[in-house]
Amino acid sequence: MAKDTPPKTYDLFVIGGGINGCGIARDAAGRGMSVALAEMDDLASATSSASTKLFHGGLRYLEYLEINLVRHALKEREVLLSAMPHISWPMRFVLPYSPDMRFEGETPVSRILARVMPWMKGRRPAWMIRLGLFMYDHLGGRKILPATGTLNLQDAPEGAPLIDKFRKAYEYSDCWIEDSRLVVLNARDARQRGARIMVRTRVEGAQRQGDHWNITVRDVETDTCEIVRARMLVNAAGPWVGDIIHQKLNLKSNESVRLVRGSHIVTRRLYDHDKCYFFQGTDGRIVFAIPYETDFTLIGTTEAEHGDPHMRPECTPQEQAYLIDFANRYFRQQISVDDVVWTYSGVRPLYDDGASSATAATRDYTLKVDAMDGAPILNIFGGKITTYRKLAEDAMDRIVPFFPGTSGHWTAGVALPGGDFPVNGVEALIGRLMANYPFLDRFWARRLIRAYGTEAWDVLGAAKDKSDLGHDFGATLSAREVKWLMAREYARTGEDVVWRRNKLGLRLSKDEIAQLDAWMQAERA
Ligand SMILES: Cc1cc2nc3c(=O)[nH]c(=O)nc-3n(C[C@H](O)[C@H](O)[C@H](O)COP(=O)(O)OP(=O)(O)OC[C@H]3O[C@@H](n4cnc5c(N)ncnc54)[C@H](O)[C@@H]3O)c2cc1C
Question: Ligand 1: distance of its center to the CA of 177 in Å?
């Protein structure tokens, strides 16, 4: 009987398990559409785990007059924060000021300034930063985040780690986001709403057949192929969006993507307070220094053209030297390459708008539907972690006309798994978790609440003592938690666990990670 049953035809097939693919899969599944998603590696294994991890409007984009992008992103910060108060939190950014600050190359604002005030050519004056911050405060309808302020660095603790040159600073708000957890939680929520999520599954090709697509997918672990049918394709392959269009699908299209690599370095903690620094360089670029994973400082990013999506991005020695030099022009404590404990690198899949430099290329997204030759495909270019939910809504606005009767927007204000508690409720949850599981220390309890929110209780189950959680892999990672990640969050390898489900890779040795991986492979066998 099964032989005669026609294969299921999904409404939507999403290529790519980064933030954009998973965000769209969740939105579509929540509207009752049947959805399948294929990710060739681990969820968030590409750009979506390699960002600076900020929900931000992008202060510097104001100099490129990307006012709409900044407005939308600013508004979105608080919508997202409320839906995921475990993996996202407000942060204050300290922007030290000195009169020798320069503009980034030839920005639209620097050109206007050079025309009306030729003596200011190339300079980024204090009044302009204040104006930018005023707009930043008011463009996005801020309700939760505190407003901009000024700091006297000679007295304020934020001045202590900096060299004497900096006497004054501005302070403003943005939010932190655990980028790879955001992706996994969207994928989980999509699955809970009925989507099929296939990891380690590569799309090899797809052909239009009348009103549907036949998509060939390969399970890269078993090396077996399957044909999946769908009425519409969504190409959310990030840096590979062009590879899908031209190589895998052989479509005619003039659209192209500009690949821009960005790298970060991580050092041991360089200062004691919990605020970030926004440093401006003599080349006009900006770099962030951010408190990271309690004991570390994250510094980034660089920008370099990246020719080929198949080339794994890595932080080059030149990029490391650039970031170290940048930090050393601000911090008293001078760092060297010996202080770098980890680096990571990602590729921005920017829409190629013909801009002269990588820095100037738009960070906004572009959505293109192609339905000329039969079943439709939606190609996604660019985007930011911050705008992923809006991008998914906009994508659905393009998709819905092909599926009359589909319901409307729903994701604003709907919590992601574990995020069903108030924005300021983290400390209370940590206290409750420690009361319920007295064997947890504060670091452990905080880590679990920041990762799993209200689901932390499910992760720990009926454990009365540490030993009830099974094998201890080090750094508070237990067998019970790893099993939970394998069963619920698609974790297949040690790397998935220690670099994307959490960042315990910073605390575990290579041997410990290898032991974890061997344990997981045995568990799967
Ligand atoms: C250095 C850097 C810093 C950034 N900082 C920020 C920030 O602070 N805030 C912010 O808002 N944004 C930031 N961004 C931007 C943001 O990270 C990206 O816009 C976003 O992650 C892109 O997501 P994506 O889903 O389009 O791509 P990806 O995350 O790359 O996902 C695409 C997925 O498609 C999969 N795929 C490709 N081909 C196939 C195939 N044939 N079959 C199956 N799967 C396939 C890939 O494996 C990949 O996982 C930053 C980007 C970079 C590079």
Answer: 14
